[in-house]
Amino acid sequence: MSLAWHTLNVLTPISNALSPLTVGWLGLPAITGVFLVLGLVRKELILLGAVAILGSTELTLFLTPVQLVTLALVGIIYFPCISVFVMLAKEFGWKPATTISLANILSATMIGGLAFRLLTLFF
Description:
By secondary structure, the chain is mainly alpha-helical. The protein has helices at 3-8, 12-25, 32-41, 45-54, 65-77, 82-92, 94-122.
């Protein structure tokens, strides 16, 4: 991992807090929790954050192909991003926007965990 990860250790608490989800259910490395938090701001920050934090564009050095597919699946279905959430709230109100967003997060984690388990059977 990049020097920033080792020297600052700022991201460790986030990784540890999310590791039951990322490691336990999704089968991803603990650091991917940080990537998902970055995805709340903008979805593409999941991969851009991974490249910046890991210090390489070669993500296969850190994630297996199954983990990459799982992370991509979760990223696609995951929270729509803050700007979309605000637009949903303006259009439908805060409660429906929150419900939609929570449904997306729940769907993404369920589908991601199931996909990880199914893909590991074959690859």
